Amino acid sequence: MGRFPEVRSERVIGSKRIKELSLFRRSVNKGAMRLRMGFVLGLVVGAGLAAYPVERGVKIATEPGQLRIEIDGELFANYRYEQVSRPFLYPVVGAAGIPVTRNWPMGFKEGEAKDHPHHRSLWYAHGSINGHDFWSESDRAGKTRHVEFRELAATSEYGRIVAFNELVANDGSVVATDIRSMTFRNVPGGARTLDFEITIIASHGRLTLGDTKEGSMAIRLAPTMRVEGPVAEGQIINSRGITGGATWGKRAEWVDYFGPVDGRMVGVAIFDHPSNPRHPTWWHVRKYGLFAANPFGVHNFEGKERGTGDYVVEEGKSVTWKYRFYFHEGGHDAADIATQYEAFKQAE
Fold first, then answer.
1. Domain tally for the chain?
2. How far apart are CA 4 and CA 84, in angstroms?
3. pLDDT tens digits, one per residue of 317-333
4. Could you report the per-residue pLDDT of 118-142, keeping only the tens digit for each?
């Protein structure tokens, strides 16, 4: 197996989380790598085993095949990682306690389109890595296989999950590995944020992240948030002032997609960090509710020669992208997305 960089553990876990995470150690990997959470056991002595954290703050609970993330006592998302084509977050509950992602194919709600079964709520995947498809769920597609959690943290201010994964081709060979960090926060005004950092590692040889629109940092939105469709009432705007379907394939620092759900106006903005390769990214954002940042698909987005968007990672090296999902109430102007993006730029 190729080498991969170690992730520093901050050992930030509230004392009331210890019992829960100790149980987690015994339940997760089922014969795969042992979970690297030994430091949790070391914290037990003298810390006490208060049953659960207080309602305020973030709680990460272990359930079969998933982690349940709660913010201030309310569900934010479930991180599903077992017996799936790739790990994903579902459901995702945004501002005002409103679910903002499509339910299908995990469930179904009236008005939802049953298309693109690989659009599983909120996920990261790419359609061409050394020629292998990790985006779709076709018979020829590869899978992103969860190996272990490197860190679980839950405090009064934030929660964090750090997971290590293998990208396994259809023939069973490991193409690459990745480390993905997800940090969850409540912010003033009732909004919520998810900071998603993905490090792709050329642990098994040289990598080419291929030039295709099928990727990469993605969410599939609730049907009424769409711009197009029988129940669609949404809108899209990017940092350059472009709106609607014209935002597809354009470069921008951020895109905001918003519309009514259950009678409340809510939205999701995705921010592309200035440190990211190829910032500002291109956007694979569709009127039917797919919303993705994709720094690779130059051929599709700009009509340039095939392969123009290829991104190469030499063997033993890695590359990192950072994104923020900003879940807000109200439309684009009410949420002041431009100001929120400026704050994101200053964040570490």
1. 1
2. 23
3. 999 999 999 999 999 99
4. 999 999 999 999 999 999 999 999 9
